[in-house]
Amino acid sequence: MYNITQIRFSAVSQNENYARAVIAAFASQLNPTLEELSDIRTAVSEAVTNAIIHGYEQNPDAFVRMDCTLDHGLLTVTVHDDGCGISDIELARKPFYTTKPELERSGMGFAVMEAFMDRVTVESAPHKGTTVTMEKRIGHAG
């Protein structure tokens, strides 16, 4: 089975739940287990929250884009923002690192994404935005 979808939404925290609902509905085409579905929703939540909080600082005039692809059992989710970007991706991926300690951020976003997805890549440049691509093979489809 091959299928794609793309959504774009304002960079406000309320849309994190929307992104979770969209990915759950989209991934359900592969009949994932409840654990797989929970993992995917959590990883997407972290990526979208990073884009909203860190990329755009909750700017309702900015947009986050989420592209989703199903390709014979492989789910690929790309979350993209045109925000402030990440100057040191390696540092940002370290557990407990956060640029927003005043917001009581745990700094575990990338660690959570990596724990729940099979593959996570991050592309970013200061003042140019960030793209997080996550992949997960669902069940035994393929």
Strand order of the largest sheet: 1-2-3-5-4
Low-confidence stretches are none
The top level CATH class name: Alpha Beta
Annotation field: number of helices: 4
Determine the strand fraction and express it as a percent band. 25-35%
Q: Which structural class fits the helix and strand makeup?
A: alpha+beta
How far apart, in Å, are the first and last alpha carbons?
8 Å
Mean pLDDT: 91
Shape: globular
| Main beta-sheet annotation | 5 strands, antiparallel
For the record, the CATH architecture stands as 2-Layer Sandwich
Give a structural overview:
The chain has 142 residues and is an alpha+beta fold. The protein contains four helices and five strands. It has helices at residues 15-27, 34-55, 89-92, 109-116; strands at 2-10, 63-71, 74-81, 119-125, 129-137. 32% of the residues are buried. The model has no long low-confidence stretch (mean pLDDT 91).
Layout: helices, strands, pairs:
Blueprint: E1 2-10, H1 15-27, H2 34-55, E2 63-71, E3 74-81, H3 89-92, H4 109-116, E4 119-125, E5 129-137
Antiparallel strand pairs: 1-2, 2-3, 3-5, 4-5
